[in-house]
């Protein structure tokens, strides 16, 4: 989901939940009920979770049509860890790469570490 949409939905939810003054921080409101929150969904965290799942699926080369298309169109027999996003890439692809860079940074050996984790 684009960040603009996430911010807009979050703003609508915050405005609905607050009266005149915000009595509780939004992060506290998004906590589960058993932890003292209202159990509302944190849309940004859910979106990051979805992107991380797609990154993992692309790495594992699962047999879905979308993953095969990604490997053919974007990766061209390269690992996802060794490819960079291009200016003409789709917004979803750019988001996956932004999360990848956020998770592993510029560490040059991350490909070997991920391969060790999957063995």
Structural notes for this entry:
This protein is mainly alpha-helical and 119 residues long. It folds into 2 domains: 3-41, no CATH class; 44-118, no CATH class. The protein has helices at 3-17, 26-29, 43-60, 65-75, 91-104, 110-118. The radius of gyration is 18 Å and the shape is elongated. The two termini are 32 Å apart. The mean pLDDT is 80.
Strand content: under 5%
Helix fraction by DSSP (H/I, runs of at least 4): 55-70%
Q: Give the oligomer, counting copies of the same chain as homo and different chains as hetero.
A: single chain
Number of helices: 6
Low-confidence stretches are: none
Domain count, please report it: 2
- SSE sequence, one letter per element: HHHHHH
The largest sheet is:
none
Write down how many β-strands occur, each being a DSSP E stretch of 2 or more residues. Answer: 0
Choose one word for the global shape: elongated
- Distance from N terminus to C terminus (CA atoms, Å) equals 32 Å
Mean pLDDT: 80
Rounded radius of gyration (Å):
18 Å
Structure class:
mainly alpha
Key traits:
119 residues, mainly alpha, 2 domains, elongated
What's this entry about, in short?
With 119 residues, this protein is mostly helical.
Write the SSE topology.
Blueprint: H1 3-17, H2 26-29, H3 43-60, H4 65-75, H5 91-104, H6 110-118
